[in-house]
Amino acid sequence: MSGLARPSEIYSPSCESVTGSQLSEFIAHCEARTGRGFEGARDFEAFSIAEYRRFWSLFLDWSEIAAEGDPEPVCTSQDPEQATFFPGLRLSYAENLLRFGSEEEGERPAIIALGGQGPETISRRELRDKVLRLADRLRGMGVSSGDRVAAIAGNNPEVVIGALAAATLGATFSSASPDMGAQTVLSRFEQLQPKILMANLEDRGQPDRVGIAERVAAVAAGLPSLSAVIALDEGSLPASSGMVLQRLSELLAGSPDPAEEHIWQRFPFNHPLFVLFSSGTTGVPKCIVHGAGGTLVEHLKEHRLHVDLRAGERLFFHTSAAWMMWNWQLSALACGAAIVLFEGPLEGPQTLWRVVSDQEVDVFGTSPPFLQVCEDAGYSPRRELPLPKLRAVLSTGAVLNDWQYDWVAEQVGDLPLQSISGGTDIVGCFVLGNPDLPVERGKIQCRSLGLDVRSLGGDGGVGELVCANPFPSRPLGFLGDDGSRFHQAYFEQNPGLWTHGDLIEFDEKGQARIHGRSDGVLNIQGVRLGPADIYRALHEVAEVAEALAVEQRDVDGRGRNRIVLLVVPRPGSNLDGELTIRIRRAIARHTTPLHVPRLVVAVDALPVTHSGKRSEKAARDAVNGVVAVNQRALRNPEALEMIRGAVAAAESRLRERVARPPADGSTVARLRAMWEELLGLEGLRDEDDFFDLGGDSLQVLELLTMVEERIGVELPLSAIVEAPTVAELAALIDEPEKGYDPLVLLRPGRGEAPLFFVHSLRGDVFEMRRLAVELGGDVPVYGLRARGLDPRLEPETSVEQMAASYIEAILSVQEKGPYRLAGYSFGGLVAFEMARRLRQRGEEIGWLGLIDAEVHHSCLRPAARWRFLAARPFHLARGAWADPRTKVPRFLRRVARRLLPKLPIAPPAPSEEDAAFSPRLRLMAEICQTAADAYQPPRYGGSATYFLPEVRRLGLYCDPIPVWREAISGGLEITRVPGGHLEMAAEENVGTLAGEIDRRLGIMSS
């Protein structure tokens, strides 16, 4: 090892690796076999790329993969699109994952499963025996090499057994998670024409599995190729399905153990192993076929050399069976490591860290969003739990922010946080960690060994992520494709290079940063938007000849992105204030507020290629001040400098306008100046509607904050719904004596009975406006807001008081029933109480909608309440007595957590957005929270619809469904909608929720 750098030269003091990493051992092996020395990790990386055939041959030898045949040729071509690896080899993926060399190794854990009845440990011998037994049963069902097996399953041992049994027979395996809808699964599985469908059928008390048996039955009915459906648990299909069900437990029972001398059937190196699926955002999901050999050697390389995963260690990656990280974690069995499988609700930031602690996990895999949840909640794993074995944290699924490296160092421990990035397309990584290199804040440590990953056109900066040489885990192709779609997806854009669709940047040390996707999709406030919607909306604006919407990143230094619309006016037209307003109004009318550009800029021309195609990427680079790559491919590269100048000039004009004081001191003039500043407009008329101009909820919050700071008047958010123009809002401010009305018209309508929405926790109804607008038909929608929003009025402090008051309010617009009521969160409790009281008066209730109306755990029966508290002790940690900000001594808070079953549950720690709300809104939230904690739903003889989010926040509240089922004797319908509690009515999900409400109200959506 004379050519290797010494540890002191290559290790960071803050993330020192285990002495003698497997990568160091492999480098020594390569030195011995090649007779050359390597000057540290970067030199060896360069060798692995330049001599990739030699590298893969050496790795095959060193890793001792069980295979037979001729290892030459290693690779058949220099062309990444056409190359095939190890065509003379045969192997079994299952054999390599399940083999063990001694009795002691056979008794080591292979799987530690959490969920259901509690921890379950399966040894390597037990797992091998179960796999071979199931493979024998599948063979008896006619499954053979080339067939396809599909599964709808959680992250549990049963689906692992199913996948490896299929691989044992040479069948191809695909999986989906139980929370996916039937049509979503069918859009994937019907392309496979699977012979066997395996599925979990029990909901196991998990909200994401409500109705799972019905969904599986619908999927099976749409797959005429099936010869059998195998239940992975003890659940059953609906009797109406008429399907014969086989049960895994029965297939594995009653058979002698397989012979010790089992002979594994080996298949060609490039035999199909997995079919994974693209996201389907641009059409029917593509079926990406991955080979057994390529998957195995790539995963072994990543696990052993990059992660330094060893026999006897434990890997826990928080994943589902619908994500490629499930397949990636599965292959860790080939290292002799155990995999920790977790399926269950994420009840709070401590849930996953408790798994890491309790199961003594060595390597923990997670995502940036989860790490952010932990940070936002103020949770410290290091302070709360022992992490005796944890030596590395892996993160993927999104771009890892710089500050998250700091959080892990401070709150988790002195260990490396390794960002890894690749994807479903290659079932592996292009850039990832290295145990022999330091981790630098915000940086991914290195390229994946053997892969010539480059930043195309980056010139030392951000460019397209491409791979310039062949690699074993390149997919075999797309199922049912003649090669044309595969070529178009990865090789058409840059012939001879795999183009991945990400933006990447490398520094002089070879460390990487991922900068997101390189396509034209716009990511605004975390929502992906298609620019085609914007272009369609602009057809009605005759003065616009051409337009191009691009994303401008981090415009305020806080990570916020905005849409910049580049407009080419028609001859004789000018982009003045009036035209800008009409452009914004047209886009707002036909799309959503998020689609409305925050900056509209006139340009003479848009950049186009020599074939006449517009280059969104070149325009985006110009708007963001980045030097566009490959400008020679543009017919008019001079357009880029013109765009940069036009954007800079427009931003300068905006800054100048903000600095100018209003023409006079009237409320109208001051409000007009605020609106123009906030919306980036000039020439605003006093009768222009805030929402018609694309104003969104965040801008409403900013506007009312400005009103309070500059005029000294505190207004509820719903004020902008009451008074959506400058003139109307000025009148509301100047004439407070007009009084307070609890009813706010969220959407006008006629000809139908109105729908009344009750406010949520903060007492206001603004958050319901978007939902009201999305509803179909011509139904008028009113919002009921709390009296306490008016500082002159005493707030009602109980659900009963509010219900009585709001009934009187709705009688002023609808004297007789049937009444249609709904409420989100806390509002659902009040709407329920209103419906109950109206029914007692003899009035008819046409419909009652409870949008995730959570209840306090005191509503549970005593046994259920104590089970809830015992299983989720962190609930009480959020209570007032347990709050470390109180003056109560810590030991008393601990006693309180254990002994006070009715301790109120505090809401989550306020986010940055929450902190911006006014003191009055925060006071109303406290009042409503107290009212919610005290309310226990009485018996109600009517019916209701409960809208249940896909992601439950069980870390705060108990499961409300049993409580509502007991209270509502007329029937409770459960409807699942996307998102979590806080996202149900958010921009990306509001259309789905509105459609479900339309269906219950019998409205035909337009």
Question: What does this entry look like structurally?
Answer:
With 1006 residues, the chain is α/β, with parallel strands linked by helices. The chain contains 36 helices and 37 strands. The strands form nine sheets. The chain has a seven-stranded mixed sheet. Strands 31-33-32-34-35-36-37 form a seven-stranded mixed sheet, with helices on both faces. Helix 17 links the parallel strand 16 and strand 17. Helix 3 packs across helix 4 (52-63), helix 7 (124-140) crosses helix 8 and helix 28 crosses helix 29. Mean pLDDT is 85; it is low at 1-18 and 874-916.
What is the count of DSSP helices, taking H or I runs of 4+ residues?
36
Gyration radius, rounded: 31 Å
Low-confidence stretches: 1-18, 874-916
Biggest sheet record: 7 strands, mixed
State the separation between the terminal residues, measured CA to CA: 72 Å
Overall geometric form: globular
- Give average pLDDT, whole number: 85
Q: Care to count the β-strands?
A: 37
Topology:
Elements: H1 7-10, H2 22-34, H3 41-50, H4 52-63, E1 67-69, E2 89-91, H5 93-98, H6 103-106, E3 109-114, E4 120-123, H7 124-140, E5 148-152, H8 157-168, E6 172-176, H9 182-192, E7 196-199, H10 212-221, E8 228-231, E9 245-247, H11 248-251, E10 267-268, E11 272-277, E12 287-291, H12 292-306, E13 314-317, H13 324-330, E14 338-342, H14 350-358, E15 363-366, H15 368-376, H16 381-384, E16 392-395, H17 402-411, E17 417-419, E18 421-423, E19 428-432, E20 446-447, E21 453-456, E22 462-467, E23 477-478, H18 484-490, E24 498-506, E25 512-517, E26 522-524, E27 527-529, H19 531-537, E28 544-552, E29 562-569, H20 577-590, E30 599-602, H21 616-623, H22 638-659, H23 667-679, H24 697-711, H25 719-722, H26 726-734, E31 743-747, E32 755-758, H27 769-774, E33 781-784, H28 799-811, E34 819-824, H29 826-840, E35 845-851, H30 862-871, H31 874-877, H32 890-899, H33 912-915, H34 919-934, E36 944-951, H35 961-967, E37 972-980, H36 990-1001
